[in-house]
């Protein structure tokens, strides 16, 4: 962002990315939104501030900065961003209670929720809500797996762990391959198929696959060798006639088993579980 509140865009030196040990990438600068315009208005406050009011070019601007097309009550995501205004609760704690309705999907989505956007072989960030809608877990609440008051990063335990999530419902599911028995369910069923800031491309026998910096929420792995995870133009995640999406073994297996090929992965999937 520049001193007038506009978001700077371009092919390089626009976004600073932290080092990612999992991907083996160092901290670096990268481009952001490769557009012809050198800068665009800041309109992101609905998800990044509390009490955002969009005002447009001719309305009020936060802190008098013309590039910010809106105002907010508080910077960042505070309690009231999810639980609603709290002044009434402060005046009457028992009579006026903050909402506890789950509203994660208000922000963890991108545009049209009927499709999942993709680019460069990965899902674009913010699509967690759309992921769930095309998965077997579409009826679960986000809080079934997440503590919304803790981050999933930096070992803050925002993810409750497989014993309190996956194994609550899938307790009888067995892993038959001894070398995989100690792996968490999310290792294969929630691979990093989403890019927020960083990604890498892995070569494996016969092809290559991208790995991003955020786990996906599709869960189901396709065993059909003909299934393609993305549409022909690579802009969206593919869905079947029942509007369900599937991970392919490229993403579930090949980011780790780079000395193998896709045929080996497809054959191996049948031997992992007992059902």
Q: How many E-type strands? A: 13
**Amino-to-carboxy terminus distance:** 52 Å
Q: Which percent band covers the strand fraction?
A: 15-25%
Structural class: alpha+beta
Mean pLDDT: 93
Order of strands across the biggest sheet? Answer: 9-10-11
Low-confidence stretches: none
Overall morphology: globular
Number of helices: 8
Would you list the SSEs in sequence order as H and E? EEEEHEEEEHHEEHHHEEEHH
Helix content: 10-25%
Largest sheet: 3 strands, mixed
Report the C-alpha radius of gyration, rounded: 21 Å
Count of discrete domains: 2
Report what the structure shows.
With 275 residues, this protein is an alpha+beta fold. It has two domains: 7-91, no CATH class; 105-275, no CATH class. It is built from eight helices and 13 strands. It has helices at 45-48, 79-83, 87-91, 128-133, 166-169, 186-189, 249-252, 262-269, and strands at residues 7-8, 10-17, 28-32, 39-40, 49-50, 53-54, 70-71, 74-75, 118-119, 122-124, 194-195, 200-204, 207-211. The strands form six sheets. It has a three-stranded mixed β-sheet with strand order 9-10-11, with no helix packed on it. A hairpin with a 2-residue loop joins strand 12 and strand 13. The longest helix is centred in the last third of the chain and has 8 residues, at 262-269. The chain is globular.
Short précis:
The protein is an alpha+beta fold and 275 residues long. It is 15% helix and 15% strand. The strands form six sheets. The protein has a three-stranded mixed sheet, with no helix packed on it. Strands 1-4 form a two-stranded antiparallel ribbon.
């Amino acid at each position: 962002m520049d001193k007038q509140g506009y978001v700077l865009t371009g092919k390089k030196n626009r976004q600073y990315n932290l080092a990612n040990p999992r991907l083996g990438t160092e901290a670096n600068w990268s481009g952001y939104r490769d557009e012809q315009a050198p800068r665009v208005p800041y309109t992101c406050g609905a998800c990044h501030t509390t009490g955002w009011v969009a005002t447009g070019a001719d309305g009020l601007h936060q802190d008098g900065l013309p590039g910010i097309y809106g105002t907010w009550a508080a910077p960042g995501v505070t309690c009231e961003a999810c639980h609603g205004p709290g002044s009434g609760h402060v005046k009457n704690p028992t009579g006026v209670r903050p909402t506890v309705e789950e509203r994660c999907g208000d922000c963890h989505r991108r545009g049209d929720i009927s499709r999942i956007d993709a680019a460069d072989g990965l899902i674009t960030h913010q699509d967690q809500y759309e992921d769930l809608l095309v998965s077997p877990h579409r009826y679960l609440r986000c809080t079934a797996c997440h503590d919304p008051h803790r981050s999933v990063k930096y070992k803050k335990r925002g993810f409750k762990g497989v014993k309190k999530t996956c194994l609550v419902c899938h307790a009888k599911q067995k892993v038959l391959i001894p070398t995989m028995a100690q792996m968490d369910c999310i290792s294969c069923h929630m691979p990093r198929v989403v890019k927020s800031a960083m990604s890498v491309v892995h070569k494996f026998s016969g092809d290559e696959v991208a790995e991003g910096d955020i786990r996906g929420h599709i869960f189901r792995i396709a065993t059909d060798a003909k299934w393609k995870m993305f549409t022909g133009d690579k802009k969206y995640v593919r869905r079947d006639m029942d509007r369900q999406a599937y991970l392919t073994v490229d993403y579930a297996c090949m980011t780790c088993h780079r000395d193998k090929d896709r045929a080996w992965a497809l054959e191996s999937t049948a031997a992992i579980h007992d059902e």
